[in-house]
Specification:
Number of strands: 20
CATH class of the largest domain: Alpha Beta
Radius of gyration: 64 Å
Strand order of the largest sheet: 7-6-5-10-9-8
Number of helices: 25
Helix content: 40-55%
Shape: rod-shaped
Number of domains: 5
Length: 740
């Protein structure tokens, strides 16, 4: 568009311009110097033109399709000159000096003489255009250098920073500066959501904890589409959801740009920036964001790989430490186990030795207690032994024990207390306790288990040895009591090999537990406790004050058989009283019945003695004469208690009364048996008996005194009279049977 003559009245009013030579010289001088900046060049040219022709010239620049004045002037403000800023390719067809996007416009008629040479104006325009282009190029170089610096820093951090959170923070910080943004955040994918992992420049706490599904907000849109998301007006844009509009208002955000983060083609997150001012993200901004996103992806992947590697190394280190710990634990466990096994194999593996070995190895107090809570041994001497005893007893009463495993407990004083029950064939026989110590719980637990196993083995070893000896011992006893002659002879030889002397007078004892079943039911004993009670009684019998007289002792079920070295009846009764007291003290409340045979000199006759002991035991149980009875004192009762059809007791009964009288009559041609018979036939009347025998009463009395002296009977006592009468009649019957 050109100026018409209609605009003349306006221009005619303009003041007269200054001399052209002066203007041209000054313009040439300005263009000959190197400007400090484009703004300074424009100001210099514009100032010159304003000084010499303020209402004629103006400088305009093409911005898109619009020419925009660069310097204020009276011409630019006038309606006629303002009309030059039109949306055409050129501001005016004539009187225009243009160079690229810069033009100097002369507000004059087309037919008016030029104020300044057109060639000079074009030179000035080119100079301004080149100055602006150089400055823009320099700015682009500086920006490119800044961008390269940022990318170099990010790349450097990829190689140096190993912590993922630090990498994400560095990426957000560098992106914020390069994009001239106000907020920057890195969101990483977690399943079907993206979670804010690092954020800078935010004002609200919620921004640092953003969590979006697909399609929510700009990041959710990128997550859903996989494409770059750009929003010029966050609050008015309709392409994004309104889930976070209130947060955007609180943060005062206006525009946003988000790019996807991809690793090997897989979506892993979003890099997003926000501005709190009205602005448009250019294609250059998008390109920079994409470049940063690529570097960020590498950095994230590198940091993730490093983190995985670090975690793996930490796990390997932990596994190595754990393995070393286990190896050391196994080494110590093996050493302790070897020590305990050697102790058992050497025959010194009693509970005391085991407890001492474990205590020395672990440096703690070790105790062994029986199943009923009695402390058997403890090493070393502990100042709080009473506390240990009471705690063990209480635990035994409550039966609160873990089967086949060690259990960590605490004593009332606060000390650590490991317990492990000791089992043999699923029967609990005791408990091992480990108190205090500085070893780790694993070591204490393993040691408690090994100590319990060693105690089980020691118990089995002791029981096997005891069973073997007892079996051999029992075999000797029962061969002597029940075996044929050849077995009894062999048993005597084995007894001699075992150091058992059976010379001299001996008696056989046969005993039985009277109330053990009732005690077990009343006290809720198990089978193991009942067996221990029996063994306790046997040990008490052997270790009693009368134990020296016990030559052999055997337990079979509830029956006890013993061979004791004792002769007279009084000594026999004293021995039985001592054994009974010892049994009662070993197991309070237990009662036993005893039967003792008469005295025998030859061990080959022990079967007869054993039968007598059985008869005496039957008398003690049936006649309730007390806890024991002597066969010698049973009298005629033993004939009723003895085995049916057994003639040995009958003959023994006859011989005890009549044998001394028969021997006297044979040696002295006496008549003691006839006198005794006549005394009984006369109803124990001495006068009638004397008349029957045709002797003087004094003679009869003398004979009766001899009979009492030889037989040991008191004929003035009814029981002795009945015993003597019965023995005499049985002798007559047996004599008649022999004659028949």
């Amino acid at each position: 568009m050109t100026l018409s003559h209609k605009s003349w009245p306006v221009l005619a009013a303009l003041p007269a311009p200054r001399p052209l030579a002066t203007i041209s010289d000054e313009l040439l001088a300005i263009t000959a110097r190197e400007p400090t900046s484009a703004a300074a060049a424009i100001a210099a040219i514009g100032g010159c033109l304003r000084r010499y022709a303020p209402e004629v010239f103006t400088i305009v620049r093409l911005a898109g399709e619009t020419w925009t004045p660069l310097v204020p002037s009276g011409v630019a403000d006038s309606p006629a000159v303002t009309a030059l800023s039109v949306r055409t390719d050129r501001p005016s067809a004539h009187r225009v000096a243009r160079a690229g996007d810069i033009a100097i416009v002369t507000a004059w008629f087309d037919d008016a003489p030029p104020l300044i040479d057109a060639q000079l104006l074009r030179h000035v325009a080119r100079w301004l255009s080149m100055t602006i282009a150089l400055e823009n190029a320099a700015a682009r170089v500086v920006f490119a250098d800044d961008e390269a610096t940022v990318l170099r820093l990010v790349a450097s951090e990829i190689l140096t920073i190993r912590d993922l959170d630090q990498v994400l923070l560095s990426i957000a910080t560098q992106t914020l500066g390069l994009l001239d943004a106000d907020i920057c955040g890195v969101l990483l994918r977690e399943g079907d959501r993206v979670q804010m992992r690092s954020c800078v420049g935010h004002r609200m706490v919620e921004t640092a904890h953003l969590r979006m599904k697909r399609g929510q907000g700009v990041a959710g849109l990128v997550f859903q589409t996989g494409e770059i998301g750009r929003v010029d007006s966050y609050l008015t844009d309709r392409t994004i959801s309104g889930d976070f509009l209130s947060l955007a208002a609180q943060e005062a955000t206006r525009s946003a740009l988000a790019v996807p983060l991809r690793s090997h083609g897989e979506f892993i997150g979003v890099l997003e920036v926000w501005r709190r001012r009205d602005s448009i993200f250019t294609d250059a901004d998008v390109r920079r964001m994409v470049s940063l996103a690529d570097l960020a992806t590498i950095a994230i992947e590198n940091a993730s790989l490093y983190e995985d590697q670090r975690v793996m190394v930490d796990k390997l280190r932990e596994a190595h430490d754990a393995m070393e710990h286990q190896v050391e634990l196994l080494r110590r466990s093996s050493r302790l186990q070897n020590s305990l096994l050697r102790l058992i194999l050497e025959g010194s593996g009693a509970y005391g030795g085991i407890v001492k070995t474990v205590s020395r190895e672990l440096g703690c107090t070790v105790a062994y207690s029986t199943a009923d809570g009695q402390l058997d041994c403890c090493e070393p001497a502990d100042a709080h032994l009473a506390e240990i005893q009471s705690s063990v007893a209480e635990l035994s009463r409550t039966h609160h024990r873990a089967v086949h495993t060690a259990t960590r407990r605490m004593l009332p004083s606060g000390r650590r207390w490991w317990t492990h029950a000791v089992f043999v064939a699923e029967i609990e026989i005791g408990m091992v306790s480990l108190i205090g110590g500085t070893e780790a719980d694993e070591a204490m637990e393993v040691a408690a288990g090994q100590a319990a196993m060693a105690c089980s083995l020691a118990h089995l070893e002791q029981r096997a040895a005891s069973q073997a000896r007892n079996a051999a011992f029992d075999q000797i006893v029962w061969d002597l009591m029940e075996g044929p002659v050849e077995h009894r002879t062999a048993a005597l030889g084995r007894a001699g090999e075992m150091g058992i002397q059976l010379s001299g007078p001996h008696r056989v004892i046969h005993g039985s537990f009277a109330n053990l079943t009732e005690l077990a039911r009343e006290r809720e004993w198990d089978t193991a406790t009942v067996d221990r009670s029996k063994r306790s009684v046997i040990r008490a019998l052997k270790s009693s004050s009368a134990g020296h007289a016990v030559r052999m002792l055997s337990l079979r079920g509830d029956w006890i058989v013993a061979v004791v070295e004792v002769n007279g009846r009084a000594d026999a009764r004293g021995l039985m009283s001592t054994l009974t007291t010892a049994a009662r003290e070993s197991v309070p409340g237990v009662e036993l019945h005893w039967g003792m045979s008469s005295c025998y000199d030859k061990p080959l006759n022990y079967p007869a003695a054993f039968r007598e002991a059985q008869t005496a035991l039957s008398g003690a149980r049936r006649l309730r004469t007390g806890t024991f009875s002597l066969y010698d004192e049973l009298g005629i009762v033993r004939l009723l208690l003895g085995p049916t059809g057994e003639s040995a007791d009958l003959q023994r009964f006859i011989d005890e009364v009549t044998a001394p009288l028969t021997a006297y009559d044979r040696q002295h041609d006496g008549s003691l048996l006839i006198t005794l018979r006549a005394f009984f036939d006369s109803d124990c009347s001495q006068k009638r008996a004397a008349e029957m025998l045709f002797v003087h009463p004094k003679t009869l009395r003398y004979r009766l005194d001899q009979i009492a002296q030889l037989s040991g009977l008191d004929l003035s006592v009814h029981a002795d009279r009945m015993r003597a009468d019965l023995a005499l009649r049985l002798l007559e019957v047996s004599a008649n049977n022999v004659q028949s």
